[in-house]
Amino acid sequence: ISICRDLPNIEVITFSVNGISDLEPLHQCQNLSELYLRRNNIRSLDELFYLKTLPRLRVLWLAENPCCGPDPHRYRMTVLRNLPCLQKLDNQAVTEEELSQALVDGVEITAPPARSPVENGWSSTTSSAAGATTEPQSLLSCSLEDTNKTQDDLDMKLVPRDKYSSFSTQETDCSCKKRNNVLNAILLLMEELDAEGLEIIQQTAVRSLQALQKKELQEE
């Protein structure tokens, strides 16, 4: 989820069922109001340290992660003590009584979690059907073929291979990687949109392209 470092204005993030274990990339998303992280691989509530700096966060879904532990009450109290501005936690409204109780029963988190060298990202999983170890592809790790397949499904123009491969010679590696990551993220998220949503995206893209072309003409 490192792409989130480049999306400081994002307001809603849905990363449920993605094998995520590290929330550090989210601490720069200052406009984030809703965060859905159900059924991931978040092992420690210390990861909440990175969410404490988000002033607009009001909805959090963290259930079905290892960090929830065997004691639901202690888990909920700890989350609310560290994120007292939440209005809903795990699809359940937060009450004033809970916020008061959290000051007593919750644990305050004052430091980021310790990292092990092999932690973060997808862990290897074993396929019971094939009997082989496979590594699922992360949400934002896509090849050119994956990107073109997504575009083809959405009836979009494919990225020319020669243009795609020339990015590294035209731009720095950092900016090239950033642009490709943003492009892949947008294309994947577009699969979740209905016809109305896609029309909005199309209209916005056309306006942005026209503005860019106008700017280029003025510079010439």
TrEMBL record:
Keywords: Leucine-rich repeat, Repeat. One of its GO terms (biological process) is cytoskeleton organization. Residues 114-138 are annotated as: Disordered. Residues 123-134 have a biased composition (Low complexity). The keyword Repeat applies. InterPro entries: Leu-rich_rpt, Leu-rich_rpt_4, LRR_dom_sf. It comes from the Eukaryota. GO terms for cellular component: ciliary basal body; photoreceptor cell cilium. SUPFAM superfamilies: L domain-like. Plays a role in cilia formation and/or maintenance. Plays a role in the regulation of cell morphology and cytoskeletal organization. Involved in DNA damage repair. Found in a complex with CFAP410, NEK1 and SPATA7. Interacts with NEK1. This is Cilia- and flagella-associated protein 410. It comes from Quiscalus mexicanus.
